[in-house]
TrEMBL record:
Keyword set includes Ligase: yes
InterPro entries for the chain: AMP-bd_C (IPR025110), AMP-bd_C_sf (IPR045851), AMP-binding_CS (IPR020845), AMP-dep_synth/lig_dom (IPR000873), ANL_N_sf (IPR042099), FAAL/FAAC (IPR040097)
Membrane-traversing stretches: 79-98
Lineage: Bacteria, Bacillati, Actinomycetota, Actinomycetes, Pseudonocardiales
Species: Actinokineospora iranica
CDD domains in UniProt: FAAL (cd05931)
Protein name from the UniProt record: Acyl-CoA synthetase (AMP-forming)/AMP-acid ligase II
A Gene Ontology cellular-component term: plasma membrane
Length: 576
């Protein structure tokens, strides 16, 4: 039997736990599709390993080692089996979603066109959907097969190496730039171990609870990779189950002591606003171990709203763990220190626009609040001038660079982009490329994110590509968006987007804002709303907006993690 402490593949870890604890529950799926009250279905370590082995043996007969296999299925226990089975077969898993997912059809088509899988795994519900989708989109022919559900004799074990590609993690973003990050077996196991240590997860007591999509990096690592590596139980539901009734997520946390969970920032605010007081009376959240908060610049207001909403249930402020990560780093990069509550720092907005984090009095007119993402969790992080490639001192804003065993190999079939993003090298103070055996000579991942270190902690300030530059001044879109949301009662909170567009006089700023559902469309004075927004933005940011447009609820495009896709919004605006 492999040593569970040293094995560098998820299938190897699974086989070890199946031998050590065959009858222990490995994974549980909370199913709300037929019964609104929910039903729980589980697999033991032994059952999970047997089903994975059967899928691996079947997959070996369908594709060659190293070929991509796409998973287009509903998020159930079968999805977990399919993913691990493809890995065990030595193929490259491509975790995706069934074509029926609203708003993501273009992205799915772009991903399939990029990776061209010779095999697509489906379930009964998605079989015909997938066939129709491939035909309608004119995608290359591929074998479509239902996931095997029977167990039997194990096939020949495929030797897996840490450096072999395990799966392609497609990044969020515009549909025309679908990029599959090549995550190796060693990458995912390393990052799972980093998470296990940073979030203090222990076998026999800790359980992960999730609703995030398993095709998304954070959902996949939290609900599949970490439990398999740490030998802890995973409990998950479908994203729609959470969106329909957010209380389901909180109930699952209450029912599973020492739970570790994760969600993007907007989900905490959404949950805090949607769970009724009557439900809270039956919830016990004092044992929640960690609530990972990541995937976008964090908002102190959203954290406070969730904390205040569930304080009556015993939720500890220290359970909230603001974090930073990205698909190119498997997922997790940094997090706050265990046992400390999230802290919002006030920084001077004008200094930030100039590239410096300088503290400002809380509540002052020039202050902007940022939440710390803590310290690296097993990697090395540097703040670098993206033009000179020189490392910057604490307090200076630059591009976040990362190096460590969790950083992926590169992008699938994109060698030039891979070299530019994953093969960056720091320059010495003179501007020359560093060589030799020093840490600076290592290759680094250029994240494309802006940030700075202050008081020993990492602060993420935004994306380089999203930075708005008007008349020589830098402005962060999320800062403008918060001002817009507060400017008028008809604007839906956390559903606005700001971006710049070219004009004969230089870059100008456009704002799109969704109408809140509680305000009827015919009752909104659009001229008055636009004037209120323009005045608020001019007063707080010194910017004259080019256009303010109110759009209907749920019409702004989103990424796979639920964030509003700024680049896609900008592209669509320019095409109209």
């Amino acid at each position: 039997m492999r040593n569970v402490l040293t094995d560098t593949t998820l299938p190897g870890q699974l086989a070890a736990w199946a031998t050590l604890d065959p009858h222990g529950v490995a994974v549980s799926f909370l199913d709300y599709r037929a019964n609104p009250a929910g039903e729980q279905f589980s697999l033991t370590w032994g059952e999970l390993d047997a089903r994975v082995a059967a899928v691996a043996a079947w997959t070996q007969a369908q594709v060659s080692t190293g070929e991509p296999v796409a998973i287009l299925m509903d998020q159930t226990l079968d999805y977990v089996v399919a993913f691990l089975g493809v890995l065990s077969a030595g193929a490259v898993a491509v975790p995706l979603f069934a074509p029926g997912l609203p708003g993501h059809a273009d992205r799915l088509a772009a991903v399939l066109a990029d990776c061209r899988p010779p095999l697509v795994l489906v379930d009964h519900d998605s079989d015909q959907q997938v066939r129709d989708f491939l035909t309608d989109r004119g995608l290359p022919p591929t074998e479509i097969a239902a996931l095997p559900t029977e167990t039997g004799e194990r096939g020949e074990q495929v030797p897996l190496r840490a450096e072999d590609v395990a799966y392609l993690q497609y990044t969020s973003g515009s549909t025309g730039s679908a990029r599959g990050v090549m995550i190796t077996h060693g990458n995912v196991v390393a990052n799972a171990r980093q998470c296990t240590t940073a979030y203090e997860m222990e076998r026999g007591s800790t359980v992960t609870v999730g609703w995030l999509p398993l095709f998304h990096d954070l959902g996949l690592v939290l609900s599949v990779a970490v439990p398999v590596v740490a030998g802890i139980r995973s409990v998950f539901m479908q994203p729609l189950a959470f969106l329909e009734r957010p209380v389901r997520w909180v109930k699952a946390l209450s029912a599973n002591p020492r739970a570790v969970t994760a969600a993007p920032n907007f989900a905490y605010a959404y949950c805090g606003a949607r769970v009724a007081d009557a439900d809270k009376a039956r919830l016990r959240l004092e044992t929640v171990h960690a609530m990972v908060d990541g995937s976008e610049p964090l908002q102190a207001a959203a954290i406070a709203r969730f904390r205040d909403a569930f304080a009556v249930c015993g939720l500890r402020p220290q359970a909230h763990r603001p974090s930073y990560g990205l698909a190119e780093g498997t997922v997790a990069v940094s997090t706050t220190v265990a046992g400390t509550a999230p802290k919002a720092w006030s920084f001077d907005r004008e200094k930030l626009a100039e590239g410096t984090l300088a503290e400002a009095p809380p509540g002052s007119a020039t202050a902007i609040e940022l939440v710390s993402c803590g310290q690296p969790m097993g990697q090395t992080v540097a703040i670098v001038d993206p033009k000179t490639r020189r490392e910057l001192p604490p307090g200076a804003v630059g591009e976040i660079w990362v190096t460590g065993p969790n950083v992926g190999l590169g992008y699938w079939n994109r060698p030039e982009e891979s070299a530019a993003t994953f093969g960056a090298v720091l320059a010495d103070p003179t501007g020359d490329t560093v060589s030799g055996d020093s840490l600076a000579a290592d290759t680094w991942l250029r994240t494309g994110d802006l940030g700075a270190c202050h008081d020993g902690a990492l602060f993420v300030t935004g994306r380089i590509k999203d930075l708005i530059i008007v008349d020589g001044g830098n402005h962060y879109p999320q800062d403008i968006e918060q001002t817009v949301e507060r400017a008028h009662a008809a604007i839906r909170p956390r559903n606005t987007v700001a971006f710049s567009v070219p004009s004969p006089d230089g870059e100008r700023v456009v704002v799109l804002a969704e109408r809140t559902r509680s305000v009827p469309a015919d009752s909104v004075d659009l001229a008055e709303l636009a004037a209120a927004v323009r005045a608020a933005v001019a007063r707080r940011h010194g910017i004259a907006l080019h256009e303010v447009r109110l759009v209907e609820p749920d019409t702004l495009p989103r990424t796979s993690s639920g964030k509003i896709a700024r680049s896609t919004c900008r592209d669509r605006y320019l095409m109209n």
